[in-house]
Amino acid sequence: DTGVSQDPRHKITKRGQNVTFRCDPISEHNRLYWYRQTLGQGPEFLTYFQNEAQLEKSRLLSDRFSAERPKGSFSTLEIQRTEQGDSAMYLCASSLEGGVVETQYFGPGTRLLVL
Amino acid sequence: AQSVAQPEDQVNVAEGNPLTVKCTYSVSGNPYLFWYVQYPNRGLQFLLKYITGDNLVKGSYGFEAEFNKSQTSFHLKKPSALVSDSALYFCAVRGSTLGRLYFGRGTQLTVWP
Question: Is the pLDDT of residue A105 over 70?
């Protein structure tokens, strides 16, 4: 399978714990995005990488959230001191820079439940 | 600022009938518009996009979308619905910088046999 992959697919944690999610983009894609989707809503942008550089962060990305893409390949999203409001589906997407407007391809998501 | 509205939370249609899922947008600059579909517990799957040119865009699985600049709309259509088309559909507009997408709240499409 050459699509975007995410791990884990599901995560249940207790409030206050730290969690880390991983995203592996399509192999030649140099752009990587993180979105968050809550029930009944569309995905909301969190952050964006071009290669290893984090170029944009949403105001939704509080100090408890950090994302990295150390070698311009896979990315991790860490949430520290989780809160119940962090419960959501976390989606990763990747795209290949070029053309007028490239298409973002999404992974299956990581569903987080904070108890 | 960029935004998308999907005025219908739910659309119900009989199999074989045409379907339309509505989307209106607001952008500063050129509108770059997308449709994605989401099946239960799955990520989003790309259907089609409008960049420029022909107002009728054809996409995957027989879907098409009509861009209307004067009405700022980008409605998704299919001439003959299938039960397997039942899913959650999202319209999105690309931001003016750096590629982030702004999504609507989604429309649940149900096609009944």
Answer: yes
